[in-house]
Amino acid sequence: MKTWLITGTSTGLGRLLCEQLLERGDRVIATLRKQGALDDLLALHGDRLQTLTLDVTDTEAITAVVSQAFEAAERIDVIVSNAGYGLFGAAEEASPEQIERQLATNLTGSIHLIRAVLPHLRAQGGGRIVQVSSEGGQIAYPGFSLYHATKWGIEGFVESVAKEVAPFAIDFVIIEPGPTATHFAEGLDRTTPMACYEDTPAAEVRRALASGAFVVKGDAGRTVEALIHAADMTHPPLRLALGSTAYASISEALAERIRSLEEYRHVTFSADIDAKA
């Protein structure tokens, strides 16, 4: 039986993750912004589920809740940084408040959570951190610039920290689902559209989301199953794309980056110090 600490468990992948882990007999400490969303699971699984109130934009609260979780569990095997949401709209349309909230939830919230759990994982001799990212951590859709900034940012942070803490038997898995059948689209924070963007790619995506034409192939239950499988691996990959859309879009993006890198190789190398000078 493993013990998991999971953020953002009210709905979506976080909620499904709790359900599947409890069904297989694991212990879960679930954080959510408002109590009550998991009351049905508490009734079913008793003391194998503990819920704690946490808004990941509150840095002091993160430290306190993490300490409370480790004190209660003594050992936590897997931490899942899952709390997050999407802000949709052209970058110019977003308000300063929307930008700050998006960064504070998806990026700095995850950073502070990881920083808070590291001392506890070191003290217990190791552990695993699963960061829920997105295909949007390696590719970009128009209209999701601020969301992508958080996902690209957290992936860079995790990749660096993974090298820092490997000597302490702490490792990471970055999960990158493609579009998945959750309530993500319904929970989007949306900007106020500007008329000048009406005939741009950002507006095309807005219309696709509104009409239901945005293609969603990912199954939420199977995505969670794959996440659990990765977290159970002895030697998991640092990044794991989930869903055929994620595979195709990330593959295309990586291939284009390699192509461009090679095309301008001569310019790249021209920036070196001339060893013969």
TrEMBL record:
- Does the record's keyword annotation contain Transmembrane? no
Q: Which UniProt keywords apply?
A: Oxidoreductase
Against NCBIfam families, the record matches this protein to: PRK06482.1
State the similarity comment: Belongs to the short-chain dehydrogenases/reductases (SDR) family.
This protein's name: SDR family oxidoreductase
Instruction: Name the species this protein comes from.
Output: Pseudomonas agronomica
